[in-house]
Specification:
Layout lengths: L2 E10 L2 E11 L15 H9 L6 E6 L2 E2 L5
Antiparallel strand pairs: 1-2, 1-3, 3-4
């Protein structure tokens, strides 16, 4: 499954956690998210899993939008 993150932003109560993240991950590729505590790694994974909705931007799985909980 190809994942496409397009200009993803996430804000919580005015705190900008993810700012303009874009990346394409091809099927079969291994990806590691590395960074200091609080930089948005888990939040990005929650968006990828559909557990969170981005404040801006979009995420596609095989060209179809991934929507957060509603």
């Amino acid at each position: 499954m190809k994942l496409s993150f397009n200009n993803i932003e996430k804000r919580f109560s005015g705190l900008h956690v993810i700012d303009n993240f874009s990346q394409e991950i091809e099927d079969g590729k291994l990806v590691a998210l590395v960074g200091p505590s609080g930089c948005g790694k888990s939040t990005l994974l929650h968006i990828a899993a559909g557990l969170e909705t981005p404040s801006a931007g979009s995420m596609l799985a095989d060209g179809r939008p991934v929507r957060g909980p509603n």
